[in-house]
Amino acid sequence: PRAESPIVPVVIGEADAALAASAALEAEGFLVVAIRPPTVPAGTARLRLAFSADHPDDEVLRLAALVRPYADAKA
């Protein structure tokens, strides 16, 4: 689906997986917050991506490539 907001959630599933994904993305230079229960229902932990016009297209594409395996694992 196409993003319609500067905040894009990527559902990962389990809280531990979301935390691991967040840490891996931080190691790549991206601040991506893991949102976990009780903020969201159990089994729907997610990454919260926030974008602005200041983010260069190449970095957005790099982040998308890094996030894709986590999103695909949930699908």
Descriptive keywords:
single chain, 75 residues, alpha+beta, Aspartate Aminotransferase, domain 1, 3-stranded antiparallel beta sheet, 2 helices, globular
Integer average pLDDT = 92
CATH topology-level fold name: Aspartate Aminotransferase, domain 1
CATH class membership: Alpha Beta
Profile the largest sheet: 3 strands, antiparallel
The low-pLDDT segments are: none
Shape: globular
- SSE run: EHEEH
CATH superfamily: Aspartate Aminotransferase, domain 1
- Strand residue content: 15-25%
Distance between the termini: 13 Å
Question: Strand tally, please?
Answer: 3
Strand order of the largest sheet: 1-3-2
The second-level CATH architecture is Alpha-Beta Complex
Q: Would you tell me the structural class of the helices and strands?
A: alpha+beta
> What level of helicity do the residues show?
40-55%
Radius of gyration: 12 Å
Give the number of domains.
1
The total of helices stands at: 2
Structure description:
This protein has helices at 15-27, 57-74, and strands at residues 7-13, 33-35, 45-50. The chain is of the alpha+beta class. The chain has one domain (7-74): Alpha-Beta Complex (Aspartate Aminotransferase, domain 1), CATH 3.90.1150.10. It has a 3-stranded antiparallel sheet, covered by helices on one side. Helix 1 runs antiparallel to helix 2. The longest helix has 18 residues, at 57-74. It is globular. The two termini are 13 Å apart. 17% of the residues are buried. The model has no long low-confidence stretch (mean pLDDT 92).
